[in-house]
Write the structure tokens for this entry.
Amino acid sequence: MSDVPARARYEQFVELHRGPDTFIMPNAWDGPSALIFKEAGFKSIATSSAAFAATLGRLDGIHAISRDTHLDHAVLLTSVSGLPINGDFEDGYGETPDDVAATVDTAIARGLAGIGIEDTTGDPVDPIRHFDDAVRRIEAAAAAARGRIVLTGRTDNFLWGISDLDDTIRRLTAFAEAGADVLYAPNLPDTASISAVIEAVAPKPVNVLVSPQDTATLAELQTIGVRRISLGVDPYTHALGATQAAAAKLAAGDLTALASELHFGHIIDLIRA
């Protein structure tokens, strides 16, 4: 269990965003994955609502995970790692701006260092909230968050196949003006789009989602001004991919298929530390 005070974790997280270097914030899905990221030297960790939902056999983005369940998950990552944890909290778990503010208040009370609020609806048929509604929700979140938790305002246009850079920038600019500390639009198609977002919301920092298929390097992203990089579901799918490959070999009779350089005793040592 961590004995790092919540205020100290918040201040550490704020400082990471002040630079000058771009930092990588990997997304953990359980206690041991958080500890492995900590062991590797990462200074903060995020939850992934999609990865966490998958661990429970559920789907992301349709309100299949309750606010309290996700909070418990984020608190677990906090307690085992002692690192600042950024909660990937879908649409803020509430229909009204007041509901979103209540989620932020609860996240602060439970020791999170950061929280992300999306402009999603939970309805795949109509996935993105109307502009004014989305802005009001970020305004309410920012009023609750100010000076107590790092608030990321996020639009999921591109994640849902709405390839409208102008609307994406309009939303992120409004979220910045409403008080969001960090801005984020997952699945931007190229570095030119990322640069346009960074310029539009400057001087506030921008988070960029990076996948193994992306061609931009860390140095290139730092040069254009990216402050924070997250990885989404990719750490989780990487682990599952290794399991899938081993499972196929095991099913074919290879009893050595699960051999690994990582021994469970090391995980025990990480938990005990």
